């Protein structure tokens, strides 16, 4: 069982805050009953209607691994009419991205209409590792490397990378390329950590998520997940 606002948010319908608003306004109906209480817990197969729309219509579950290119936004729609990650996958299912990558970040992004799996992958307690390759301005010194390894405090919470490796220090272009693995899901977290260290991120690519990689894909391409991979993702719970 999960909190109602979390299940609504994990379905990709809206943010958790917006879901709380809908609940407070009495616009949420669970299994035919209008929700009046706070902190209600539900199952992913309960019938949930938000603002008149059925949330979890019995739709076949679909799972995609996309190599997100630059210049595409990680959401279902964009009020400025920009291209979204959902536009890159031809399906009628109501899929949405699991977490987000910035407009200019490239790399591995999962899309699905499975709210339960989204909940598993984005819940901080499940510690799903994501590895990024970053190119930053300036040369990262051995002292800064140690600082990064020991963790960087972002908005009063320390983020300790699971993995840090310098790939290349380029004196000519005054840049450093490195790998950084994190279990965090906060927005812009890698950029914030490296900026805190004194290095602006010039390029960012998500290389992997848990055991999944971009192998065999080019930017803009996608593939479906295998049953075995889906089961393995569920077992991260
Ligand atoms: N961290 C960032 O700063 N940006 C991303 O797109 C992903 C993680």
- Which term fits the overall shape? globular
Major beta sheet summary:
9 strands, mixed
Which series of helices and strands comes N to C? EHHEEEEEEEEHEHEEEEHEEEH
> Which CATH-level-2 architecture of the largest domain?
2-Layer Sandwich
**Helix content range:** 10-25%
What is CATH's topology name of the largest domain?
Alpha-Beta Plaits
End-to-end Cα distance: 13 Å
Q: Based on DSSP secondary structure assignment, what is the total number of beta strands?
A: 17
Return the average pLDDT rounded to an integer.
94
Q: Give the number of domains.
A: 3
Class of the largest domain in CATH?
Alpha Beta
Radius of gyration: 19 Å
Task: Describe the protein.
The chain has 237 residues and is of the alpha+beta class. The protein has 3 domains: 2-54, Structural Genomics Hypothetical 15.5 Kd Protein In mrcA-pckA Intergenic Region, Chain A, CATH 3.10.290; 63-124 and 215-234, Alpha-Beta Plaits; 129-209, Alpha-L RNA-binding motif (Alpha-Beta Plaits), CATH 3.30.70.1560. The chain is built from 6 helices and 17 strands. The strands form 4 sheets. Strands 7, 8, 9, 10, 13, 14, 15, 16 and 17 form a 9-stranded mixed β-sheet that branches. Strands 3-2-5-6 form a 4-stranded antiparallel β-sheet. Strands 1-4 form a two-stranded antiparallel ribbon. Strand 13 and strand 14 (175-182) form a beta hairpin. The model has no long low-confidence stretch (mean pLDDT 94). Bound molecules: uracil (URA). Residues 101-102, 105, 188-191, 204 line the site of uracil.
